[in-house]
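Pilot study result, target chain (155 residues):
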Amino acid sequence: MKGSAKVIAALNDLLAGELSSMDQYFIHSRMYEDWGFQKLFERIDHEFDDEKGHASLIIQRILFLGGTPDMVARAPLNIGKDVPAMLQSDLNLELKVIDDLRNVMALCEQERDYQSRDMLQVLLSDTENDHTHWLEQQVGLIDKIGLQNYLQSQM
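Predicted structure:
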């Protein structure tokens, strides 16, 4: 099927964001593991796998629409130097993904590509209800119980 060039380009932009998210989560998860924060390692490693799944869905859709996935482009990474900075960096990344997904969903509506829109709705739900919500909770916990208590709970 030949899809809209605008939608294919927008999906490639989303793909760059997902690949960057994968890279950032991968690095952060390994930093947590190295520092002995096993719970954070496991959760962020899970997020890495989720982002890989998101990227796979976008790649499949681009291919279905007759496009070529751009596996080279990446958004800049923001690697934190400590746990609060890492969590905030990941949260900022997810908030950007939410905006990007909504913008591309609107484009899909304009281009009458409802299947791509529906696929992106699934990614949006996962991003809002799982990734972003969990990261907001962690940042909030640090504020409520203090950094040292939070870090102790993540060992």
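One observation from the pilot: The helical segments are 5-35, 38-64, 83-110, 114-145, 147-153. A full batch analysis is planned for the follow-on phase.
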